[in-house]
Design goal:
The chain has 3 domains: about 40-170, no CATH class; about 185-315 and about 450-520, 3-Layer(aba) Sandwich (Rossmann fold); about 315-440 and about 535-545, Response regulator (Rossmann fold, 3-Layer(aba) Sandwich), CATH 3.40.50.2300. By secondary structure, it is of the alpha/beta class. It is globular, with a radius of gyration of 27 Å. It has 18 helices and 19 strands. The termini are far apart. The longest helix has 24 residues, at about 195-220. The strands form 5 sheets. The protein has a 7-stranded mixed sheet with strand order 14-13-15-16-17-18-19. It has a 5-stranded parallel sheet with strand order 9-6-10-11-12.
């Protein structure tokens, strides 16, 4: 091997190893070998976690005498991660990001290059480091007046106070990447194992929604006047959609996403479509502080402790929790719980979740794994030894459910995945319907009809083919939520603030599509929390009946 210029390079030994590492680092965009993320500052830890530099919990008291410690006393609970404040009913929590605290009375936010937020109290006196420390410790504002009784009085020494105030000054309120004076850039991410029919249906909805949004903006020639304590002009921006199609093995996706983000900076990821593995996408968005709003994923890998990834539902993982609850309440003893799923499909993840729950309860669990591309006739062999005292859970797609027509039913205790099987449209043979219960993680058909028909009417008016009803309805809902959220953000295009405003928007949303209710409190990342267990009402039709009330596991 020679370098350019004819100099020989070694073919073995430490030099080659170092060269390989460098080459691999470049190939992966430094993703695999990147330095660990920087540790949070003392001020950030105090603000977000309520921990002092000594790692001891900070202590604070409210005017009424209540004592708060540690995480319960953290500033983030009220002033939020963005530092831009919040509101709950009639209670308004003002922003405490530096520019809002230290701006002089009478100075225009717009003139200072500070975005307007509707929780800002414009006419307060400008804080100094000393008066801000007094406010935090004693609950006295810059004007000498007592702050709201909800504001805790903190026990913080001078060194920690300086760190906290320094952190507040550093909170960014300028527009995030992907925002220009004329355009808001968004991405949607599609994994290579995503269903191609669902992909087309999702993109049909997104492309048309963006067209409609931009056409509506073009018809509004004058800027929109916004009023709340002050009058400002909000500049309407055109929406631009970037489709990030991933290829190859999941191990390469993060590098691909880094390349996409570098060449096409976006404000947020909206909707999207995953197959059996969304993990690298979730990891990337969290690492990049990039909001990922309501992707169509059947088995989300996220946790409520994450911040930037928000989902409508836990999908099949929620179904596993629903079935686990049912099994725990079954009075007749179950000899063995048998689960059937195809290797590599999301049913495998659901089966692991259910197995963990039942193993902890002392239940014997046997998993029958079908090869990813094996013929449906192999299903009969997987079910051959299921006996009348066993319970059976089917994590199967419609094609496999149809194949059950030639397989005898050997137990009266059968559960199936509604998410994977097609909900009430599941082609389960009549002989199986009488004994099968379905985990149903959405609202019942009769109760959701009005909410879903709103989206379906929009599809019909725009001649969008109905290819994947729930994916398309969820995509339309995600776009609508984004639009409503941005309307309330005015010009404060900060990514953390976007997530916080989405949480607020969900509480007031009436049209919630397939879901009876959507809520996201801080520390929650799954907007729909429960589901039903249903049975089929007749041998052939699509009727289903709940076997109880809405269940929140």
């Amino acid at each position: 091997m020679t370098r350019p210029g004819g100099r020989a390079t070694p073919t073995s030994g430490p030099a080659v190893a170092r060269a390989a590492v460098i080459a691999l680092s470049g190939l992966l965009g430094a993703g695999a070998l990147a330095a660990p993320p920087p540790q949070p500052s003392v001020g950030e830890t105090l603000y977000r976690r309520g921990l002092l530099p000594s790692a001891e919990p900070v202590q604070a008291t409210r005017e009424a005498g209540a004592t708060l410690r540690g995480a319960d006393a953290a500033c983030v609970n009220c002033h939020r991660r963005s530092g831009l404040g919040s509101s709950e009913g009639r209670i308004t929590i003002p922003p405490i990001a530096g520019p809002y605290l230290f701006i002089a009375r009478g100075k225009s936010l717009e003139q200072q290059g500070v975005p307007f937020v509707d929780t800002e109290r414009i006419n307060h006196e400008a804080y100094t480091d000393e008066s801000l420390a007094r406010a935090i410790r004693e609950g006295v504002g810059a004007d000498g007046k007592t702050l709201n009784y909800l504001m805790p009085r903190y026990q913080i020494d001078d060194a920690a106070m300086a760190e906290l105030i320094g952190y507040l000054k550093d909170i960014k309120v300028s527009a995030s990447p992907g925002v220009s004076t004329a355009v808001l850039h968004f991405a949607t991410i599609i994994t290579p194992d995503a269903d191609p029919v669902k992909r087309r249906g999702m993109l049909d909805v997104m492309n048309q929604y963006f067209v409609d949004k931009n056409n509506a903006m073009a018809r509004t020639k004058a800027p929109t006047l916004y009023s709340s304590h002050t009058m400002m002009f909000r500049v309407e921006r055109r929406w631009q959609l970037h489709v990030w199609e991933l290829t190859g093995a999941p191990a390469t996706w993060e590098a691909q996403l880094r390349k996409y983000l570098a060449s096409e900076p976006v404000f947020a990821v909206i909707s999207g479509l995953g197959g059996s593995n969304w993990g690298p996408v979730q990891k990337f968005c969290e690492a990049q502080s990039l909001p990922c709003l309501f992707p169509n994923v059947e088995a989300p890998v996220g946790q409520d402790s994450d911040f930037y990834s928000v989902y409508f539902s836990r999908g099949v993982l929620l179904e596993a929790q629903l079935i686990a609850r049912e099994l725990a309440q079954t009075r007749e003893p179950i000899h063995t719980l048998v689960q059937v799923f195809r290797a590599g499909d999301v049913g495998e993840q659901a089966a692991r979740t259910l197995q963990a729950a039942r193993t902890d309860a002392g239940q014997q669990v046997v998993n029958r794994v079908l090869k990813a591309h094996a013929a449906s006739k192999d299903l009969a062999a997987a079910l051959r030894e299921v006996g009348p005292t066993d319970a059976l859970v089917l994590w199967l797609r419609p094609q496999d459910l149809q194949a059950l027509a030639t397989v005898p039913v050997t137990t009266s205790r059968v559960w199936m995945s509604g998410e994977m099987g097609g909900l009430e449209q599941a082609p389960l043979p009549a002989s199986w319907r009488a004994v099968t219960r379905m985990a149903y993680p959405v609202d019942l058909p009769g109760r959701r009809v009005v909410r879903v028909d709103y989206a379906l009417s929009w599809f019909r008016m725009r001649k969008i083919p109905l290819l994947a009803r729930q994916v398309q309805a969820d995509t339309y809902l995600a776009c609508g939520l984004l639009s409503e959220t941005l309307n309330h953000m005015v010009d404060a295009f900060v990514r953390d603030y976007l997530i916080e405003r989405v949480e607020m928007a969900l509480d007031h949303r009436i049209l919630t599509g397939y879901y009876p209710r959507l809520t996201l409190a801080p520390g929650q990342r799954f907007a729909s929390k429960g589901g039903y267990i249903v049975r089929f009402s007749d041998p052939q039709g699509t009727g289903v009946a709940p076997l109880g009330d809405w269940i929140t596991p």
